[in-house]
Prior knowledge:
four-stranded antiparallel sheet; 420 residues; globular; single chain; disordered N terminus; Kelch-typ_b-propeller; alpha+beta; repeat; 2 domains; 9 helices; Neuraminidase
Amino acid sequence: MSKESRDSNLGDFGLGYHTSPPEKVRRRSSMSSSFDGDSFSSKELMQLDCALTLSLGTNIVPKPKDADYCYSIPPLIEEVEALILARAPRSEYWKFFLVNKRFLALLKSGELYKIRSELGLKELSIFVSPCGERKWWEFDRQFKSCRKLPILPADETFIRGDRESLCAGTHLLVSGREIEGLVVWRYDMEANIWSRGPSMINPRCLFASATCGSYGYVAGGFGMVATGWEVMDFAERYIPQTKSWEPLPNMIKKRRYCSGCYMDNKFYVIGGRDPDGRGLSCAEAFDMEKKTWELIPDMLEVDDAQDQALNNQSPPLVAVVNNELYSLETRTNELKVHMKRSKSWKKLGTVPVRADTTLGWGIAFKSLGNELLVIQSSQYGPSLLYTCCPNPNAEELQWEALEHGKNPTCFIVNCSVMAA
């Protein structure tokens, strides 16, 4: 394959990376260490790798410009190729774009993601976007690889304004306001493209959201109704398979500046402000099976809720790890865990970032599998990234600083985690 062909294929996918593309496809030693050990036995891995090597060949190919036109090497059955590639780390998929046109078409078709879903294979990605920019970056779980997404083609009003992001399946949803009103932009990882819509049934901003399985849930917020702008109690669910929204029963209370999470097979909406601007310490939980909301009084400490409303702090910073709810207190930088039996909060020490300096804005506090992830961004210095494995029974947690390929000086306005 010529250099021009490879550059063209990469350009079509809008990829950015920090290392030169490999001259050869990885051999068995690197592949077997990357694959899920439960998927294949060592003997099967050797057999599949030999077959894959025969199918791909090496970079020393005489005359043909594309592997598709080399008839001297017997090809693998397409179904077997797909099963092998589906087990490869998703963060390495861009390297297969260099192999041949057939692999490129397979990656764009979305078939590999369907196979991964059927096999129960999931890999975490973190998507971040700086304030006032069209750029989005995708990082792997260890922040060792970085990929630049295609440029978001929204208008300047959308880019410069407040935005909220949410992942559902292989879709990254970004909502905000354009000149003509509230809209949603969707990034499709399978096709590697941005598309506008679909808009929510009740467009809104400043709402709670959470990824629940392969669905995206939103509730509350501030939006336009027949009588004008008002605080909402509407809720709805995004279905990635149909690229559509479906309505859910209304919440018990209207609220904005609230936060969402998924725990105990329920969608929780926590805190926020009521239509009069007063802080709410209560939460609501939506039961997926019963399709009903339950009001939970004083789930947040009352002083924290009132302080949020009075001082224009960010919505509550909450995350769920191992079905336990954690909260980052933006006034004191303390980490707390919610004790379900006593319905109280236990302190677990301070986090290694200063959420108090920005009232919580620009701080990403996310669940990353069995870890907590916290990112502090700044327009005056490099971003700080830390993870820890939380333990509700610990007195204080051990945080690990992460190094990352890009060390930008910017204020992060969006951060979302995708498992696909």
